[in-house]
Amino acid sequence: MKTHNAIRWIAGLALAVGLGGAAQAIEVGGLKFDDTVKVAGKELKVNGAGVRTRIVIKVYALVLYLPEKKDTPAGVLDSPGPRRFSLGLLREVTGEELGQAFLTGITANTDKAERSKFVNQLAQFGEAFVNIPQAKKGDVINVDWVPDTGTVMTFNGKPIGEPLKDIAFYNAVLKIWLGDKPVDSSLKPALLGKG
Hints:
Elements: H1 2-22, E1 25-28, E2 31-34, E3 36-39, E4 42-54, E5 57-66, H2 73-77, E6 83-89, E7 93-94, H3 95-109, H4 112-116, H5 119-130, E8 134-135, E9 140-146, E10 150-155, E11 158-164, H6 167-178, H7 187-191
Antiparallel strand pairs: 1-2, 3-4, 4-5, 5-6, 6-9, 7-8, 9-10, 10-11
InterPro entries: Chalcone_isomerase, Chalcone_isomerase_3-sand, Chalcone_isomerase_sf
Signal peptide: 1-25
Domain Chalcone isomerase: 26-193
């Protein structure tokens, strides 16, 4: 009888450990993010993560997911297949403020010729944020690159905006943090797994 109970206890422990392994998380800026995610049926792993700080205020936590590790901006931007970045808010902001911050970051890290190629996508991207009236601490925006579909965004798991087709646009968004003039110089190495 004792052996039977021991076997059940070990089986229960194995199940608990197994389930715990499936739900691994990392903590960034006090928010929890999955250490792996599925995008377009492919498993992506955390490439890097960090916190965007403005002066002394923590604004958001950011996690970059890729199919395989990349430690240079070019490596990330040339990465084939699906990608994701998750942005978890660390303070309250309006959707308009978020959209404006994204557009400012894109403008700082792309030239006019580059932006002219996806001007419609820029407008659609900004519009998607206007539909978020108020974002609270802990809210999460996922921005995925899905091959053959485009840039797909969700706010707390709900789709926002329409898919944006051009990979160059997705890369322009990533350049907010990985470009020559990153919005936060400490976030760039963190997203490349060097932080």
